[in-house]
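Final report, closing paragraph on structural work. Over the funding period we assembled a curated collection of sequence-structure pairs, and we close with a single example.
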Amino acid sequence: MQGEEIIRKEAKEFHDWNIDESRNNNAIDDFHQIKYRLQDFYTPESKALFLDELQRLIILSLKEHRDKAHGGQPGLNCAHEAKPEKLLFYIQQEMDTLPIIAHQKKESNPVQHRTKVFISYSHYDIEYLTDIKRHFKPFFNKIDFWDDSKIQPGQKWKLEISKAIETTKVAILLVSTDFLGSEFISTNELPPLLKAAEENGAVILIVLLKPCLFEEFDELNQYQTMNPSNNPVVKMDVVETEELYVNLVRQTKRILEAKS
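Its predicted structure, as stored:
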């Protein structure tokens, strides 16, 4: 059994015994139990996985209640919903201090075999791409990593980009004002990547490089950002940047290695 499977199984058992069957009246009391349980996990990534699974199970339980009692809608002044909603709030606050755990938005389409990691970026931000590639380099023998430097002289570059997108499993978007303002990216790269995420199980991971109006782009801001909008890479110190890129590689590997 892999480490992630063990942690998620532990979270399921904890949820069933300590959350689902809880006799505490207040959500904060359940959360204190969660905080105590987190001490059993040494790394921030393990803590994040545990909370991620707890969050998923609480949301699922809340959805089941709403489906049965309120036709799938939140219950107006429903006492049953107040506690899990507060607990989700406390859990999310804790998760905001931990590494991001990435997810597929949709189930994979088994007809389309996707294995590639595609980097979409503005050439004004090439120094960030270079630094990210440094972190992926030890895994180039295991990861099919693609950016436009792979295009050889004489090749039809638009065709090569299109072919790469067709087999992309993880799309890493390096977002800045220059990225958002790129006509080529918005016309040729984003539409097929976002379609692959919506329909074919591709995963969009966003790294915010510089301050920009990312929140104004609804087609993008629904996807996970690896760092919060108030802390773009340009504001980070060296250690923060290294930790961000390490988690980017870790989550990419996790997605690629997950069973379809």
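DSSP finds ten helices and four strands in the chain. The longest strand covers residues 168-175. We thank the funder for supporting this effort.
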